[in-house]
Each structure stands twice: as structure tokens, then as C-alpha cells.
Amino acid sequence: KQAEKAVHQKKEQSKTKCRKARRRHINLVAEFNHRQRKNIWLETHIWHAKRFHMVKKWGYCLGNSPTEKSYRACYRAMTKQCLLQDLSYYCCLELKGKENELLKQLDRICSIDTGLTFQEASCLSGRFEGSLNLYRADRYPEDMLGPVTFIWRPRDGSENRQLWIWVHPALKQDILKELKAIFQCSEPEEICISEPVTASFQEEKQVEVVTSLGNKRKKEDKEGEKAVPVKKIIGDGTRDPFQSYSWISRTTGIAISDRSMEILRYRLIGPLSHSILTETLKAASVQTV
């Protein structure tokens, strides 16, 4: 009777764990994956979230304005040192195919009257990045789509080339639709269906395990406590994870791929930008087989 009485009088366990348990890496990653299913986080989200007012735009969670007075510090960095900006929310559209076929169709959505085109010699070699305004096919000067930046991959000796076009997320769907129309890319080449489903299912299980009641947190994985959830980006803020992200044309042989959130983009402003890049990055050694 005394034992039964002690069991009934036992204090019910708290539903919320202590801060040390909540801040464990395995718990944080599962929580972060769960929280960015609707609005994708950039790689620098944690840094910005501690210092900026965050807003949800174009399917991303972006820093809008700083929480403290930092305008003078930013201006000082731009004029004397270096200021880094995260532009990874810009969408990257990749085009692959024969150079002549690419230039032939791309000329339909731009005009030499507005400035540079995709055929500019300095940009075509891959040494410099170009910028221009895109229009609907054969509709210049009407039906403007918006400004974009582009860069060609340097030639490797073959007639096939690779082109990256960077567009704002608000313009991505219209420009992607126009590119698929002029290149006749209607057949999906790669479909990303199975991975996001399993990823979201595993994340939901992890969140349930983290929030469940019990003496000690236990995972159902075979690895036990050593299993750590991996950070996964399911699609991006402008793409449905259950739709295809690569299309190919059987007639022209051109392939269009959506590389958003796969290629990160940063902007460095200031007189020390080049020296910082030189000290930070090292050229990889090319190994020939």
C-alpha cells in the first residue's frame, strides 16, 4: 500500500525539457527542418535572425532591417573594408545544349538596342558576368519580363555550352515558362518526388520524438543515439517539391534545370573584397586521369 501510494504521489513529469536538452544539436536540426517547410531559410538564416527583423517574402525568410544601429558600420565597411550580402534567394536557371542553338533562341527574348546580349564576346567566353532585360519571344519592346544576370561556363572544347541565368524569385515562373516555350522543353527529365516525402516524414517523426513525454529521449533508428538528422532543403521557396525541376527538348536537345538553392550566391562590396577572396579561397589542383 505504501508503494502504491508513492507511485500516485509521484510528481508528473514536465512536458517541457530543460534548455540544455532543447539546445542539443540533434533536437535543433529536427526543429529547424520542421520550421522551414513553408518558408525556406538561407544558409545564413541563424546569423540574420539574431540581428535582423525577419520577413517572409517569395517563399523565403529574409532579413529586412537590422535590430540595432548598424548603418554607419555598413557604410564604413563598404568604403574602407568589405561588406558581404547573401543573395542566395535569387533563383538560378541552368541551360545546357549546343551554343548555336542556345544563342539562336535567346536572341528572341532580348534586343541589342537595350545594351549587351548573350552574344557579347567578353560574356560568351565566360570571363565576365552580363546583365540585360528579357522580353517575351519576338515581342520587343513590349511585354518586358524583367532584368536578369547571366554567366557562361568557359568552353571545354566541345560545342555544348552551359549557361546560368539568375532571376529574382518574383520573376522566376514567368521567365522559366518563356524559356521552356522557346526551347520546346516540355518533357520532364528529373522528378524530385520520393526524397522530399521521406524527408518530411522523417522530420515529423523526429519532432514527435522530441516533444513526446518520457524519461529519456529514444530514437527508433538502428544507430540509436548516434543518429543525427541531416539538414534538408525540400525544394525552394518558388518551387513545388513534388514537381519536376529539369526539362529537356527532344527536338533541340536543350535541357533546362532549376538550380535554385543549389548554387549559393554572395556579393562582396568594398576595396578589400578581392584581397579577402584571395586569402580565403584556394584554387583546386586539377588532376588528369
Walk me through the topology.
Blueprint: H1 2-9, H2 19-22, H3 25-35, E1 40-41, H4 45-49, E2 52-57, E3 60-66, H5 71-80, E4 83-86, E5 91-98, H6 99-106, H7 121-124, E6 130-135, E7 144-152, E8 160-167, H8 172-182, E9 187-191, H9 194-211, E10 244-248, E11 255-258, E12 266-269, H10 273-280
Parallel strand pairs: 1-3
Antiparallel strand pairs: 2-3, 4-12, 5-8, 5-11, 6-7, 7-8, 9-10, 10-11
Helix pairs in contact: 3-9
Protein name: POP1 protein
Pfam families: POP1_N (PF06978)
Domain Pop1 N-terminal: 4-97
What is this entry, summarized?
InterPro entries: Pop1 (IPR039182), Pop1_N (IPR009723). The protein is 30% helix and 24% strand.
Residues in helix, %? 25-40%
Biggest β-sheet strands, sense, barrel: 7 strands, antiparallel
Shape: extended
Number of helices: 10
- Given as residue ranges, the uncertain stretches (5+ residues, pLDDT < 50) are 192-226, 231-235
The percent range for strand residues is 15-25%
Number of strands: 12
Distance between the termini: 79 Å
Supply the helix-strand structural class: alpha+beta
**Order of the strands making up the biggest sheet:** 6-7-8-5-11-10-9
Rg estimate, integer Å: 25 Å
Order of helices and strands: HHHEHEEHEEHHEEEHEHEEEH
Give the rounded overall mean pLDDT. Answer: 78
Organism: Quiscalus mexicanus (Great-tailed grackle)
GO biological process, one term: tRNA 5'-leader removal
GO cellular component, one term: ribonuclease MRP complex
InterPro entries: Pop1, Pop1_N
